[in-house]
Amino acid sequence: MMATLQKSKPLQLLLLIVVFILLCLLVPANEGNWLWRFPTLLKSLPVVINNSVDYLMFDWWLIDVWDPDIEEYEEKPLMRQVTRSISGFVLFLIEFVRELMLGGVKTIVTFTSWDWATENPWARWPGLPWTVVTGGVVILGYALSGVGLACFVGFAFTYIAVFGQWEPSMQTLSFVLIAAPTAILIGLLLGVWSYKSKTVEAVLNPILNVAQIMPHFSYLIPVMVFFGIGDHAGAIATIIFATPPMVRLTNLGLKKVPAEVAEAGLMNGCTDWQLMRRVLIPSARRDILLGVNQVIMQCLAMVVIASLIGAKGLGNDLLIALNRLRIGLALEIGVCIVLIAIVLDRLSLAWANKQTDYFADQSFKERHKYTLWFAGVFAAGVALAGIGQLIFKEGFNYLYLIPHNKGITTEPFWQAGVDWMWDTFFYALKGFNEWLIVDVLIPVKKAFLAMPAIATFTLVMGIGFIVGGIRSALIVGGYLLFIAMTEWWDRALITSYLMTMAVLISGVIGIVVGTLCAQNATATRILLAWCDTFQTFPSFIYLIPVMMLFGVTDTSVLIAIVVYATIPAARYTVVGLRSVPSELHDAGSMSGVNRFQRLFSIELPLSFPHMALGINQTVVFALAMVIIGALIGTDDLGQLILGSLSDRQGVGNGLVLGFCVAFIGLAIDQILRTWANKRKAALGID
Amino acid sequence: MKFRSPKMLRTLAAASCVSLMTMGGAAKAADSTQPIVIPLHNWSSQVVMAYVIGGMFESMGSNVEYVPADSQAVYESIRNGDVTISHEVWQSTFGKSFYNAMAKGGVIDAGTHSATTLEEMGVPTWVIEENLCPGLPSWEALKDCPEVFATADSEGKGRWLEGPQSWHGDLMPVRLEALGLADTWTVKFAGGADALWTELASAKKEKRGTIIFNWTPNFTDADGFTFIEFPEYFDGCRKEDGGDGSCGSPKGWLKKAANYKFPKTHPAAYTAFSKLDFTTTQIGEMAALVDIDKMDHKDAAAKWLADNEDVWMPWTQ
With a cut of 0.85, is the ipTM above it? Predict the structure, then answer.
């Protein structure tokens, strides 16, 4: 009996489920009962964190600082001075790039003083006309990749200018142009370091895990306390959010470089640096570029959130537009964000893929072709702006900058679209919505809340044990124990309920759509482009139409999560299916299988591990959206994180709540990843 | 070029550090030229008022800077000196954050506007005109028609759509309990203001009853919004003050907050800011320029400043 049980996993699972159900039935729901809800031993953790942060920022190592404005010495803590110097430097960089494009005074002030700048009102940087910036980017696109990219980039920038979003777009762009390269650089360095040292990798891995899954809201408050409010704070939060995938992918890419390649480099007498720069990194280019793509997508995805702590530009305008329910305007702004993301992605890709040309003996004109072109564009643009100054008398110059309420707008069209959607779908959807809430969501939510803590532990740790042995069981149990000992176990159960429902729906949709699209190369390309678009398109925009159709209910929350969380499920399925070697297809065909048999017996089983990782990412994305769901109205962890923004104990609460969300994700990650790795080993694929 | 840039950056960084240190050595009697940082939140009247106040400071020769900020988190930033002022501190929504920051030190109360505010549960006026629930706006009417306000997830009870829980905690559930409505009514917490406005719009389209949390002055005033008349507020009626919570909201104040250093660094600007005082009508005017006339926030502020010189000029003297 025991022997069969040890061998058969399905039997183990069955036994586990029986025990789970028995526990659910037998443990009474009683707050004093430790089997029902664990004692909240970690209740004071947020307070401890808060007090430490307060001490660090306000009381630790006070130094006397002369404040010239009030002409007094003030006691300032060292930590604050240090973090504020970092802020100052980041802000300087952002302002510098911004003022190149839009003009201003702050860069001049940095080198002089406010007093001087106030006395000399002529000392203002003028900023470039939009025609010059657009021309410059078109030349860049042409130089890097050719006519195609030049046309696309030109279209994107003209769109931004003509729709009157120039100023906020350039503000956003300047912020991304600092955040993204910094994230890429840090990611690359950490990735290389973790490739070279096992210790670093071991230390970095859990940090990256937590950073990737923790909702960005929960570290907004600490960032604000340490670095203040403004573009720099937004940039720092964005860097924290965007760096992990870069580290991961760099490390992965370097590991995949065959040993022979590295040895060939060594045989040719490479130094360490040359080996890395000339051999390893170029060989790992594919994965590193994927990392760059992810960094850019994540940076643009953060634009709206970053505006909550002071980033100027499109994100802030978007929030104001949504607060007035101006969906059309919000949509136009959203399109600008997506366009900037795609432009940056394509340009960086083209730059990385560009071959160095080794032509010698070029004339001055040939060597400096693009510089000369740009000089031409610059002269023409400035001249046009000058003419514009004479033509347009209303106080704004269309050839210099189109103000945001003077551009073309398609708002009425989108508004009409929303109205049409309402009239067409509302009554049909209403019945569905009621059924979903009354017959599915409410019962499931109640079932989750009716689980005794001991039953949850048994179930999750049991699955961990079946999949990955005692080690996995203990890791998963550890994550759960942390959540159980905070006072937010019930809230975490609600989060889990929303996440479970969302992952089920997203997983099914993603895998089905992914499988269908993977059958055809064009469909694959289109699907991947869709994935990129929806990953950067601010989810705030579709919250409003969704709320109009489904009300302030869990259905709306679920839909918002599903739209976003389906992306990785679809992406990984497609990539998994497309990466099945063609030899296996041929081998299958030769053995006489038909198209369907091949799909179901060869391709799908081989890409199951890949899909599992896709589902893993779906969980991550769903948890990231929990906070967006809170903006609709939930009573889970997300709502509390949102609330901690105004809380006196906000830093500690936000962080601990963030950890709770991250640990739910990590527990699932542990199980799915172990399973996928075992499957991969069994199938002999990597 | 590629290899020169790090060095250039270093030089820039060094130069910027040096200039930061030497900045503003000379003694001054007048206002500092350091910019006054004004926060921008996500509703129209606040943004226009920010530009109006900024314009006023600029007319006095100060430098002004605007920074987008979350309306709850901003008080922590004022305390730290990252933001200089806040000009719309609503009693019931931001009072808690404001006093929390004040208790920690670093924020000062810079006076109160004449405008009074009301933050209360209410219904769109057409709900009363259509007579969906006879007897409104008196709260007693709610006893008889919870089913008009029921939704799919309220399990047959009438639903109050309250703002996020972080705004007033359990105030509304306690009130329902105290008024004896808890058996037939339930409170749902919305995630943010967007959710409230969306509910208004969708209820109107569907012509169904809805009770939401709202405030005045607000842009919804223009479409008609009626607040429910609860038993009048008195000191000590709320649960945290020892009462049972069976009363409505008080007429609330609208305050101004500033960083504690602001009076010392910019004495003239601070004096003007403390004299600054808007009425409900003026705030309504500013919001209407944007919400109804569809003007740009900055243009609206410029127009308001030009049209109302007699109002704000005296404050700057």
Answer: no
